[in-house]
Write a structure and sequence with these properties.
heterodimer; A: 9-stranded antiparallel beta sheet; 15% helix; B: 5 helices; elongated
Chain lengths: 317, 115
């Protein structure tokens, strides 16, 4: 029986090591479920052209495509970016003992609100920092996304392409951005990802919960993201009206900034005028990038610095 | 405690109550057998198989706790629960079969249990 015990212990240890590596370390690249036929086109890296230039695209639903090149007529200051298609203003405020970074964004087309994957690949344990992804995608403004790659469930629809359509619980909430620029929070059990895509969804994020729905705060004062400390660095996306969005990132877990609860975050989004708002991955993931640099103070509470994540939401061409 | 310290106040019941698996399925079971005066000590094979099951469910609980605190999941976790409880059941079966093969001593014996 001694041999059985030794053999069993070896198998248990090896299998456990495999499970841990598979969960946290080993990259697993996967393919999309359904390709995009919408308004997102492959961006070109050709020289700057005048703003508003349209590139050809097949299967466009709205007839409007993202300009293939950046605008040469952009006016850029320390806190703002302005061209014919994109207007961004970034402010820094103190809310509930926490530094909060607010980006007010107006775009002429939802195609300028995009998502990007780490290493430009979809799958598990494929990670880069928000700044690395923002730089490689020439983002004007970027925030961390929903870190889809850390889970095996939750809708993933990016730039019109569907990657994942399963969910863990029918009450899990996803944030949907449609091709007309409108947004809403949906329960994943109420509509399939395929049906949302057919109805014009171009981006779906699945972290949650929804913060504001139809102008009303939809979290309680005691609600918290599953397994998450109440005061945290936070990242949120909101819509004031179609094509008018806000990205909000708060610091936290430091002596200078304690962080926000979900209700405080929702209150902040409501005060900004959001009619729809949604909580993205927070904690050490919370990062905002603007004008070529990270402007907040990312930390996981133990050490400062960006965390590698699987995706970003960004504004760019 | 160590993991909870680095978890920023995040807890998982699978991590918190991890100790109950060896306590309830191990120590408590043996104490019940001792107190009820079961005359036959479990065979080494039964103990080995049953103990392996406890190890599996305990490891599975620890991993479940780690993943819950981290906010992720794994499709391999059910392997621990199925293997663990299966081995525990197998250990009980092994002992039962062993007790059928060899009759235990009479009730008048002066031999103490677990000698």
């Amino acid at each position: 029986m001694k041999k059985w015990k030794i053999l069993y212990d070896i198998v248990l240890v090896v299998f456990t090591a495999f499970v841990l590596l598979k969960t946290f370390v080993i990259s697993d690249v996967k393919t999309a479920q359904a390709e995009s036929t919408g308004i997102y086109t492959q961006t070109s890296t050709s020289a700057a052209d005048t703003a508003g230039t349209e590139s050809s695209s097949s299967g466009t639903s709205s007839g409007e495509t993202a300009s293939a090149t950046s605008s040469s007529s952009a006016v850029i200051t320390e806190n703002s970016y302005q061209d014919d298609n994109i207007s961004i203003t970034v402010t820094e405020e103190r809310i509930d003992g926490t530094t909060v970074y607010i980006a007010d964004i107006t775009v002429s087309s939802v195609a300028y609100l995009k998502s990007a994957f780490a290493s430009n690949a979809y799958g598990r344990n494929i990670k880069e920092t928000t700044s690395e992804m923002a730089e490689s995608n020439n983002a004007i403004l970027a925030i961390n996304g929903d870190y889809y790659g850390f889970r095996d469930y939750g809708y993933v629809l990016r730039n019109g392409t569907l990657y994942r359509s399963n969910y863990e619980s029918k009450d899990d909430e996803a944030f949907v951005i449609y091709d007309d620029g409108s947004c809403e929070t949906v329960k994943e059990g109420s509509a399939s990802a395929e049906s949302l895509q057919e109805n014009g969804a171009v981006q779906i994020y699945s972290f949650g919960p929804g913060l504001i729905e139809n102008g009303t705060i939809s979290v309680t004062q005691n609600e918290e993201v599953s397994q998450s400390k109440s005061s945290n660095p936070r990242t949120a996306i909101g819509m004031i009206s179609p094509l008018h969005y806000v990205f909000v990132v708060s610091d936290g877990r430091t002596s200078q900034s304690t962080g926000l609860s979900l209700y405080q975050l929702a209150s902040c989004m409501q005060d900004l005028g959001c009619t729809e708002a949604y909580n993205l991955d927070g904690g050490g993931s919370s990062t905002i990038w603007f004008n070529g640099q990270v402007i907040n103070n990312p930390t996981d509470g133990n050490k400062s610095g960006e965390r590698e994540v699987s995706d970003i939401v960004y504004i760019g061409y | 405690m160590v993991y909870n310290h680095f978890g920023h106040g995040v807890y998982s019941p699978f991590m918190t109550w991890l100790f109950l698996f060896p306590l309830l399925f191990g120590t408590a079971v043996y104490m019940i057998l001792f107190m009820t005066g079961i005359p036959r000590r479990p065979s080494s094979a039964a103990i080995a198989v049953y103990g392996s099951g406890i190890a599996a469910v305990t490891t599975g609980s620890a991993l479940t706790g780690v993943f819950e605190i981290a906010g992720t999941s794994s499709p391999y976790l059910p392997v621990y629960w199925i293997t663990g409880f299966g081995l525990m059941a197998a250990g009980v079966l092994v002992q039962y079969l062993a007790s059928l093969r060899k009759p235990h001593r009479s009730s008048g014996s002066s031999v103490l249990p677990y000698q």
